[in-house]
Amino acid sequence: MYPIVARQDLAPVTKLLVIEAPEVACKAQPGQFVIIIVEEHGERIPLTIADYDRRAGTVTLIFQEVGKTTRLLGTKKPGDELFAFTGPLGLPTEIENYGTVLCIGGGVGIAPVFPIARALKEAGNRVISIIGARTKDLLFWEDRMRGVSDELVVTTDDGSYGRKALVTVPEKEILESGEPVKRIWAIGPAIMMKFVSLTSRPFEVKTIVSLNSIMVDGTGMCGACRVEVGGKTRFVCVDGPEFDGHEVNWDLLMERQRIYLDEEKRALARFEEMCPSCRGEQH
Amino acid sequence: MPKERIPRQEMPRQAPEERRRNFEEVALGYTLEQALTEAQRCLQCKKPQCVEGCPVQVRIPEFIGALRDKEFRRAADLLKDKNNLPAICGRVCPQETQCEARCVLARKEEPVAIGRLERFVADWERQNGVRVPPKAPPSGKRVAVIGAGPAGLTCAGDLARYGHGVTVFEALHAPGGVLMYGIPEFRLPKDVVEAEVEYVRSLGVELRLNWVIGKIKSVHELLEEGFDAVFLGTGAGLPMFMGIPGENLSGVYSANEFLTRNNLMKAYLFPEYDTPIKVGRKVAVVGAGNVAMDASRTALRLGAEEVHIVYRRSRAEVPARKEEFENAEEEGVIVHFLTNPVEVLGNEKGWVRGLRCQRQELGEPDASGRRRPVPIPGSEFDMDVDMVIMALGTRPNPMVFTQSAGLERTRHGTVVADENTGRTKLERVWAGGDIVTGAATVISAMGAGKRAAADIDAYLRGEGNQVWWVEPAATAAS
Ligand SMILES: Cc1cc2nc3c(=O)[nH]c(=O)nc-3n(C[C@H](O)[C@H](O)[C@H](O)COP(=O)(O)OP(=O)(O)OC[C@H]3O[C@@H](n4cnc5c(N)ncnc54)[C@H](O)[C@@H]3O)c2cc1C
Ligand SMILES: Cc1cc2nc3c(=O)[nH]c(=O)nc-3n(C[C@H](O)[C@H](O)[C@H](O)COP(=O)(O)OP(=O)(O)OC[C@H]3O[C@@H](n4cnc5c(N)ncnc54)[C@H](O)[C@@H]3O)c2cc1C
Ligand code: SF4
Ligand code: FES
Known about the structure:
The complex is a heterodimer.
Chain A: E1 2-11, E2 14-20, H1 22-27, E3 33-37, E4 45-48, E5 51-53, E6 58-64, H2 68-73, E7 81-82, E8 84-89, E9 100-106, H3 110-122, E10 126-133, H4 142-148, E11 151-156, E12 163-164, H5 168-176, E13 181-187, H6 190-200, E14 206-210, E15 226-229, E16 232-235, H7 236-239, E17 242-244, H8 250-257, H9 261-273, H10 276-279
Parallel strand pairs in A: 9-10, 9-13, 10-11, 11-12, 13-14
Antiparallel strand pairs in A: 1-2, 1-7, 2-6, 3-4, 3-8, 5-6, 14-17, 15-16
Helix pairs in contact in A: 3-4, 5-6
Chain B: H1 16-19, H2 32-41, H3 49-53, H4 60-68, H5 72-82, H6 86-92, H7 99-102, H8 114-128, E1 142-146, H9 150-161, E2 165-169, H10 178-181, H11 190-202, E3 206-208, H12 219-224, E4 229-232, E5 238-239, E6 252-254, H13 255-264, E7 282-286, H14 290-301, E8 306-310, H15 322-330, E9 334-336, E10 339-346, E11 352-365, E12 371-375, E13 381-383, E14 387-390, E15 394-395, E16 429-431, H16 434-437, H17 442-460, H18 472-475
Parallel strand pairs in B: 1-2, 1-4, 2-3, 4-16, 6-14, 7-8, 7-14, 8-9
Antiparallel strand pairs in B: 5-15, 10-11, 11-12, 11-13
Helix pairs in contact in B: 2-4, 4-5, 4-8, 5-8, 6-8, 9-11, 9-17, 13-14
The complex binds flavin-adenine dinucleotide (FAD) (2 copies), iron/sulfur cluster and FE2/S2 (inorganic) cluster.
One flavin-adenine dinucleotide binds next to helix 9, helix 14, helix 16 and helix 17 of chain B.
């Protein structure tokens, strides 16, 4: 069992949990993820390592409540334990001094972009960051992102905070401004990563995305996570999660993300019908 | 001394029309009376041929003799002298090509039902309390076993009995390997597997679940951090695909994914359990090994109306265990021999809508000695299915090899290891089971785990061969 040692509510549906897992913290690197099971009969879901503290032996996860499992996870508090916690999985981000880089986080994707931006900054890059969300309530970690960026642009789709725009608008402006951007990282919903990649393509700037395919084991054993990159089948959990966004077959990824839509709805409806204490919301 | 011939006792089974819709065990096991009657059939040969056919040389006539004399405890002890997992092997071993194929009775009539008797004795023991055998005094040595499948569990259990401190590292959240995630409940109930795992724990073995070696720690780190030896038993878990168009459509599963969702994650109990699974109305399963049988019979039980096995060779080459192939056919699985898929067809939403196949004929024997299927030009036809499960075989997962320079591998991705000892080319690292042989059998994995445990024990005590690697050319028996 893996104890939860801290919790922070970043937004009404976005939560942060700090988990005690010293061996995972010891090996974690930016870009990697873990697979967790919340409770015994639960499913295995992947979550990116948003931060880690090797000395304290902890790993930080940030998640958005979108369905049954993340809702259940959102009921957990310090003192509770996770049933399973496996990692660090996936390949780490290739951190180098590229010169100028652009880090883009959309929605809950701000969390995984943060350790990448920080590592790029530490490696000597000039880091320009864009963080965006649908609305102000979904934004978080502006201060932390500012702390590791030379420049930071904040956007909301509805204009409730920062600039009213999709992240691709400042992205395009920065690329057009003649900033010598050598590499872009973009993490967020598939549709956002697709458009960030389409925007950067004419500028021929390599764009790294972190794909969020459906997973089961996370170790290469099932193939649930397969995607097409550059016309070849790749397993996100072992060959990724980071890939060249210009090579990804986005439509296939998005179709495969929808395979269990009906079951997900049923599971969520069933969860919502439960009384709060069965859901674990009352202690 | 002509005796009245006793016929081979049939195993009671759930009727096909009933069992094809439930996940309860199909074969129900002998009653006491049946077991005693079957045990009478054994001739107690002086030079038992059956034992020669068994990969771990179980003391077959001895345990059957004890059973016949109703000395159940002694029968169990005799069985366990060579086989750590009899309740499992009695259920899943391909006896028809091993012990039972060699039984002298098989020349004139049907062989003794050795597997069924093995199962009976093992189940008796499980119900009447398993005795924890004596352990050697602590040696002060520590061994890391990677992977909790039959190879790893057997190796760990034996090492603990030899007095060593053993830690098993398992990537998944449950131990058992293929026994847990691959073979379905209706063929191997999970409480049977759990009982075997409990037994290994009771010997003092520590199990660390959710540890992916190669990620959280490398083999080298384990050796540096104080383990005196490492045993690799990580199996062959990497699924193969055909590389044909349409293979990534929604509705195409690897058998590994389909079976893992169902068995390990218990998707057949969704929404009591959270993991979802899809099953088509008409399902095609590609392949005809044990994995294909398990996938097709699982699809039936999940409610598929039709399940089709698509196999490029003919009936004579079917690699599955005979009993399971018969069970599948009885349950209504439709088999298409000499048929090979060339494309998965999709609809506008990216879902499977059919499988394009090509007929085959058998040509010259290939490297495996089986006649090679040759496509017949112009014979393409479309099967109307909405789900495809690829059961084409598996290869070792390379993850465990991260930062383990010195471990030599073959071009099939398997580890090079000495067959008798399990020693790899990397000093203090042993390997056994599917990671060495490629996908094989439970009993061969168990046997490899046992032989490696014996060699590890000897090596750590400073006995046995202290020269790490002797080129097989110098010692080869073949
Ligand atoms: C490598 C990786 C890293 C991720 N990191 C984060 C993160 O840091 N924070 C975060 O909030 N989310 C992250 N996700 C997505 C997260 O795993 C899903 O939101 C979560 O599984 C949803 O589960 P649910 O039961 O709450 O919702 P559901 O209602 O079951 O599903 C909602 C959507 O989530 C996706 N999903 C469902 N099951 C899985 C599964 N087993 N594996 C992957 N995706 C699934 C599907 O596309 C589905 O449509 C990551 C995904 C991947 C692949
Ligand atoms: C569906 C199916 C049906 C079968 N039916 C039969 C049958 O009827 N009869 C029969 O004799 N054989 C059958 N087999 C074959 C048999 O199950 C295998 O040969 C046997 O399980 C191999 O044992 P193993 O211990 O080598 O590996 P496995 O059983 O594969 O166990 C390996 C374990 O190592 C773990 N692991 C992998 N990588 C790592 C890592 N990096 N770190 C930590 N742990 C790791 C895995 O999670 C797994 O638990 C079947 C196989 C399948 C897939
Ligand atoms: S060969 Fe057959 S008859 Fe002889 S000992 Fe073995 S099981 Fe009994
Ligand atoms: S999640 Fe199973 S192979 Fe990637």
